[in-house]
Design brief:
Number of strands: 5
Distance between the termini: 13 Å
Number of helices: 7
Length: 213
């Protein structure tokens, strides 16, 4: 028995952007055009549908009480964390709909992020996105680039520490994480991590394999 962590790099949808979703939608449409934007939306939706089916198959006969769920953007666990997940799921987030379904089946939602780091990143993104012109937006993005890079690393380290603290022996952790993140360098060596390649056979083979030091 060992500690396993399935890392799922995800593409976030506009439904997960909260109060920034409206401004983000306008920016995306301005850059991509309406037709490409709609194609992108469909691609993201298809990604989540395929991922939902993959997880249902690989966890079909699994002991869900031994599954821990970690979700980027979630700074609380317990009942409040579940309420946050449900609210996001009800708003149309396919990511959170999958997480909600895992919880309903018996998985445990863990506090994943540091609220202070999330708030700082949110305020920076809000500042950039709220810029009146594209030129101003680019200037702000350049000014904040270094700090945003640091915040990503700080968030990754914090999440890795949370997983180390909460993932017990013989348990499976499932981490839904934005594709630009990389927590692997910060993970405890006792954790057998696999970055999901969305190939069912590879995931199943990894689940069955014991980690050897």
């Amino acid at each position: 028995m060992n500690k396993k962590l399935l890392i799922i790099p995800v593409a976030h949808s506009e439904a997960e952007m909260g109060s920034l979703s409206g401004d983000i939608s306008k920016i995306i449409e301005g850059v991509m055009g309406k037709e490409r934007r709609e194609r992108h939306r469909k691609d993201v939706s298809t990604f989540w549908e395929n991922l939902k089916e993959l997880l249902e198959r690989i966890l079909l006969n699994g002991d869900m009480e031994k599954v821990k769920v970690y979700q980027d953007g979630v700074p609380i666990g317990g009942e409040l964390g579940i309420k946050l997940v449900e609210d996001c799921a009800n708003s149309g987030s396919q990511n959170f709909q999958i997480v909600s379904a895992l919880i309903d089946r018996g998985a445990t939602l863990e506090k994943t992020e540091d609220a202070k780091l999330l708030k700082e990143e949110y305020e920076i993104l809000k500042d950039i996105i709220s810029a009146k012109t594209a030129v101003e937006r680019e200037r702000l993005a350049e000014n904040y680039k270094k700090r945003l890079y640091e915040l990503t690393a700080e968030r990754d380290k914090y999440i890795a520490d949370r997983i180390k603290e909460t993932l017990g022996e013989g348990m499976l952790g499932i981490l839904f994480m934005g594709a630009t993140h990389n927590i692997v360098p910060y993970l405890s060596p006792e954790i057998d991590a696999f970055v999901c390649n969305y190939k069912e056979k590879d995931v199943v083979d990894w689940l069955r394999r014991e980690k050897h030091s």
